Amino acid sequence: MPYHEFECSKCIPERKQHAVIKGPGENLTDALPLGYLNTIPGTISERGCAYCGAKHVIGTPMKDAIHMSHGPVGCTYDTWQTKRYISNNDNFQIKYTYATDMKEKHVVFGAEKLLRQNIIEAFKAFPDIKRMCIYQTCASALIGDDINAVAQKVMKEMPGVDIFVCNSPGFGGPSQSGGHHKINIAWIDQKVGTLEPEIKSDYVINYVGEYNIQGDEEVMMDYFKRMGIQILSTFTGNGSYDDLRSMHKAHLNVLECARSAEYICNELRKRYGIPRLDIDGFGFGPLSLSLRKIGLFFGIEDKAQAIIDEETAKWKPELDWYKERLKGKKVCLWSGGSKLWHWAHAIHEEMGVEVVSVYSKFGHQGDFEKGIARCEEGALAIDDPNELEGLEAMEMLKPDVIFTGKRPGEVAKKIRVPYLNAHAYHNGPYKGFEGWVRFARDIYNAIYSPIHKLAYLDISKDEIPTDKGFSTQKMISDVNLSEEVVSSPDLREYTGKCNIIPDLCKKTYPDFPLKK
């Protein structure tokens, strides 16, 4: 059997089926971990909840709306400013976060009045913003607050405002992916088709599953515009609330992140007959193929090819320079979601790195199928790993770098493994031809940076003593300070500039003559 059992998880035998090692000649059925299941109790999962998947991943990249959480303040704080979903309206959606701040009394007596008050206050505080998205949390769902009814009443009282309600409590799915589904369906049920757009081109698309991380969307929009394509809406990075109401008039849905947004594409095809075309903005080969597919759909292949030729000639030599220096380096691709398979083959083929592991905290079986199929033999695939399993995997695989999120990345740094932020990027954008070179540069810098080599130095064994010289605050606060140390000229000079050290000195040596 291909299953891999972690030493740290032997006390939870069910975890064995959630990790596999891809062996020689094995097909996907032999090497597929269980995924998108309820979290096994005791595993200390680091997954996001369904509310997080709805608000944090898909909702808040929408740039011109107030995003209100109906629940305790901790829920909205956890989903605020944790990704670089930038926008061209001075990042309004990143600057502010809104919560009804439910307390125990509201759980007992209800919080609909509180919600109505918060909605009105938010609109009055930002009179130029006329749109709002309200997100249900576990607390408001469990007590049965009718958020839709409250929203309808406020819209009648305040003509000109429009409110979208997403009923996606944290327990609404095994992971954040459950929230992706709920907000996709809620948006098309409530808002799509409620506004008619102005069509300016013979080629009109919705760009779906794009969140404008550090400007990703702007890169792709530039390519589309150079092809003569009108982008009706972007779901949802840098997307406008009203533009997203008019998604039903596009000729084609161009889908980037299938894990988070395939649901709305499928419904748009079912209800409005709009075809879906999956694309990939990462890597020279996949991106070139994607632009050709869009060009083929509209009959403008020549425009697509002109962009490919121009960008490839400009950036391929630089990518090849990095490939020579990254060849054979081992990478853990712990990005989750669609990047698990968007990146796996592209970074191997175009940058020369070896993908030794993939993982996802919320990916479905389809994500693992595509991801594992594009990995080399011997790759370790893990569903919903915890911190201990991640540490054990790194100890076993000894990667040169890992691509992951902030939490696992900080853990990796503690054992001196460099990491790149796969979710919010280090120096993005990473999409597009130039972006892919930028990604290669970040990998190169992460692996070859001398700071990581310095981290292995044990300065306690340095031939030059490290316990002599300038008196530090720690030395001063030590109750065993000698008279020689506290009366040193360096310390006397420093006490004149520091408010903390004199207090420490007075406590230890009341008669110490401090410099005024």
From TrEMBL:
Signal peptide coordinates: none
Keyword annotations from UniProtKB, A to Z: ATP-binding, Iron, Iron-sulfur, Metal-binding, Nitrogen fixation, Nucleotide-binding, Oxidoreductase
InterPro entries assigned to the protein according to its UniProt record, in alphabetical order: Nase/OxRdtase_comp1, Nase_asu, Nase_comp1_asu, Nase_comp1_CS, Nase_Fe-Fe_asu
Enzyme class: oxidoreductase
Molecular function GO labels: ATP binding; iron-sulfur cluster binding; metal ion binding; nitrogenase activity
Any single Pfam family the record assigns to this protein: Oxidored_nitro
The Nitrogenase/oxidoreductase component domain, residue ranges: 49-447
NCBIfam families noted in UniProt: alt_nitrog_alph, ANFD, N2-ase-Ialpha
Protein name: Nitrogenase protein alpha chain
Organism: Clostridium kluyveri (strain ATCC 8527 / DSM 555 / NBRC 12016 / NCIMB 10680 / K1)
Gene name in the database record: anfD
